[in-house]
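fyi for ur records
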Amino acid sequence: MDGGKERVPELRTLQQKVEYMVEKTFPGQKVSGRVFADLVRERGGSLSHSYFSNILAGKVTQPSEDILKALGLGFGVDWRFFKEESEVVDDVVAGLQFLAKRRTGEISGLAGRGLDEDGLPPELLQFALSLLEDAKGRRNTADGGGAPFGEPEK
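which gave:
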């Protein structure tokens, strides 16, 4: 058992990171290279649809910093997420998990005092997610039914 946490896929390569972001940013949608390139352009960046398709196909592994910045614009995340040795991968993943829980209603609101324009620090966001997972696990145990959070009902 994984303690109720959502399993995060391995995100080492650029292709893995972009596939993950497509899945999390556009859940259940088929996003073409052209659509994504248009989105980047609308947000002030530049990325060709064929280059984006080549990234998804694994043909591009070490793009320029400008391309990484365009990917960040398109997905609305810090462009350093796409760097080879990124320090922000865990922060981005935690943020996406938090947003997914907001969309599903598992988290209905959050108030913070003394926050700056950057919002919640990643450590606090991860802590909030862990509290939510613990509470769900205790509720499932107390109810005597249901599968642990993150696991399908049998």
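Helices lie at 14-25, 33-42, 49-56, 65-75, 89-104, 122-143. thats all i got for now
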